[in-house]
């Protein structure tokens, strides 16, 4: 083989070995990851009008609880009602559905949720606000406040203000986060070794 060709090939392979490999830049940041986790949990909800998810995170950025709005354990999704404007209140979902925030708190995998942050798709109602405050959660990051004009949501804010629970709206960097099972990303980017 031509000696120049050998030298050039060696030089090239040395250069590529020395090239600094830098980290990916399009990874999810923490807040995106936690809000997306809340949104993914919401996909489990059977409520035809609102699917809400919640994700509780501790000071070490560890997820300690996830939940979504649904019927209590043992109360069948097929037998309990999902309607709202029913003649009898007993036949409406409102008396039965457990809200996402309550489920996330009750599903906790740590001894408590003191000083944690809750990420939630919809601003917490007054009943959830009480549970959030009593559980020791100190920060609420919500996506939508579209029901904010209703008395129960105004009451939530009054209670959060009095109890010193911070709350603020999450504005996403990306409108969409895609999860693809087939042809996962690393199949296109990994090296041969
Ligand atoms: N922060 C929230 C607000 C609402 N939900 C649940 C409760 C219901 O299943 C649904 C709202 O239904 P709507 O009364 O508007 O028909 O969303 C929740 O889990 N967390
Ligand atoms: Zn609620």
UniProtKB/TrEMBL annotation:
The keyword tRNA-binding appears for this protein: no
- Keyword flag Disulfide bond: no
Q: What cofactor requirement does the entry state?
A: Zn(2+)
Domain of life of the native organism: Eukaryota
Annotated GO CC locations? cytoplasm
**CDD domains for this protein:** deoxycytidylate_deaminase
Residues spanning the signal sequence: none
Listed under catalytic activity are: dCMP + H2O + H(+) = dUMP + NH4(+)
Enzymatic class: hydrolase
GO terms of biological process kind: nucleotide biosynthetic process
> Single GO molecular-function term?
zinc ion binding
E.C. no: 3.5.4.12
Keyword annotations for this protein, in alphabetical order, are:
Hydrolase, Metal-binding, Nucleotide biosynthesis, Zinc
Q: Which residues form the CMP/dCMP-type deaminase domain?
A: 29-167
Q: What does this protein do?
A: Supplies the nucleotide substrate for thymidylate synthetase.
In the record, the note on similarity to other proteins reads: Belongs to the cytidine and deoxycytidylate deaminase family.
Spell out the protein name for this chain.
Probable deoxycytidylate deaminase
């Amino acid at each position: 083989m031509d000696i120049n060709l050998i030298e050039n090939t060696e030089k090239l392979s040395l250069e590529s070995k020395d090239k600094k490999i830098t980290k990916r830049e399009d990874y999810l940041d923490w807040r995106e990851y936690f809000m997306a986790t809340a949104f993914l949990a919401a996909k489990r909800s059977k409520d035809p009008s609102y699917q809400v998810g919640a994700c509780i995170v501790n000071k070490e950025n560890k997820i300690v609880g996830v939940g979504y709005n649904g019927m209590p354990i043992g109360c069948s999704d097929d037998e309990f009602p999902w309607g709202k404007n029913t003649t009898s209140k007993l036949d409406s979902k409102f008396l039965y559905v457990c809200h996402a925030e309550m489920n996330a708190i009750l599903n906790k995998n740590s001894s408590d949720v003191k000083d944690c942050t809750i990420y939630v798709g919809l601003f917490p109602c007054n009943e959830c606000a009480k549970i959030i405050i009593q559980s020791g959660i100190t920060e609420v990051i919500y996506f939508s406040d579209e029901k904010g004009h209703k008395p129960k949501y105004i009451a939530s804010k009054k209670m959060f203000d009095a109890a010193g629970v911070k709350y603020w709206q999450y504005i996403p960097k990306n409108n969409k986060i895609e999860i693809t099972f087939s042809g996962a990303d690393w199949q296109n980017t990994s090296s041969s070794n």
